[in-house]
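for the recovery benchmark. tokens below, seq after
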């Protein structure tokens, strides 16, 4: 930024907004930051009492905020993301369709470590809706050097920072355990809730088997569903430490390789994740039936998207894994699950 005489200002770029006051008539911004001074403006500026102006000392390769923001937004955007110009140097990144938001956090940190670059996003690993703003970017000054923008683009060269993954449409097999349901003493309430939850994620429960609390029967039911070609197995009931709760041992007997039994999440502590070959098998605790947001919302969309969460991924949920149990649930617009 430099100071010049108003008489030498034609063609220069203003470094800040300039307010005009006409007593009794008008007070407001007469010239905006970034405005290129024209010959006819000189008289107006003199009437405003401006003999000298602060203008930008631009170099030949400097890039305007609008161009810089668009270049950074394009470089950082991957599948499922489109761009929307907001004006005043800002570009929003918007979800093209419903899906799972993914952010390369390491690259994001590297990007914003560049001088003058601002980039803010939603938290990763949450479901987003078509048309939802998932990130925004701009540069801090009105102009920056082309070198800074080029360096920012290079950070994103191999892999975009942000993308929205479409969920797969899976055939889900459901094993509902519990002697009280098997013998008809009570009606199954879990199945209809899971049916709705999976449908909202674009998958379908194709077969539900109701079993007694017997680990051999549970194992055989899981094997039956696998023989029928399901892509995903969910087992409900029998996930606590009661002697009649046989779901974990049933999953093991079916050949399940346990990733974790237990998750640092409330609600959802008794969650189990295993794999039989490439097929995920989840043991879902009863809290999934009663809460709008639980371990189901944190983990199942990731699995349906094709991710294979590790024990470390699940243990990382501890920081942020406590639901506030708000009177009106606003998930995912809250802190629940925002650690991973």
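predicted aa per position
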């Amino acid at each position: 930024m430099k100071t010049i005489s108003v008489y030498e200002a034609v063609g220069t770029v203003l470094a800040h907004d300039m307010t005009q006051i006409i007593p009794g008539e008008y007070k407001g911004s007469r010239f905006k930051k970034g405005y290129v001074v024209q010959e006819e403006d000189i008289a107006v500026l003199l009437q405003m009492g401006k003999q000298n102006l602060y203008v930008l000392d631009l170099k030949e390769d400097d890039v305007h905020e609008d161009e810089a923001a668009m270049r950074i937004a394009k470089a950082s955007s991957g599948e499922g993301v489109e761009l929307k110009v907001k004006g005043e140097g800002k570009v929003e990144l918007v979800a093209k369709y419903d899906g799972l938001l993914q952010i390369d956090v390491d690259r994001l940190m590297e990007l914003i470590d560049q001088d003058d670059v601002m980039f803010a996003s939603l938290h990763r690993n949450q479901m987003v809706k078509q048309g939802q703003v998932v990130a925004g970017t701009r540069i801090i000054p009105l102009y920056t050097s082309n070198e800074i923008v080029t360096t920012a683009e290079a950070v994103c060269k191999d892999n975009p920072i942000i993308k929205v993954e479409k969920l797969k449409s899976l055939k889900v097999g459901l094993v509902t355990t519990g002697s009280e349901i098997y013998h008809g003493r009570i009606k199954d309430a879990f199945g209809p809730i899971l049916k709705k939850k999976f449908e909202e994620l674009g998958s379908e429960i194709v077969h539900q088997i109701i079993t007694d609390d017997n680990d051999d029967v549970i194992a055989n039911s899981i094997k039956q569903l696998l023989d029928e070609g399901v892509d995903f197995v969910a087992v409900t009931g029998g996930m606590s430490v009661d002697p009649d709760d046989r779901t974990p041992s049933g999953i093991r007997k079916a050949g399940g390789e346990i990733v974790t039994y237990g998750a640092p999440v409330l609600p959802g502590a008794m969650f189990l994740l295993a794999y039989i070959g490439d097929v995920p098998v989840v043991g879902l605790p009863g809290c999934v039936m009663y809460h709008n947001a639980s371990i189901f919302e944190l983990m199942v969309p990731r699995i349906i998207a094709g991710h294979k969460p590790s024990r470390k991924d699940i243990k990382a949920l501890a920081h942020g894994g406590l639901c506030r149990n708000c009177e009106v649930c606003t998930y995912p617009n809250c802190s629940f699950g925002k650690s991973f």
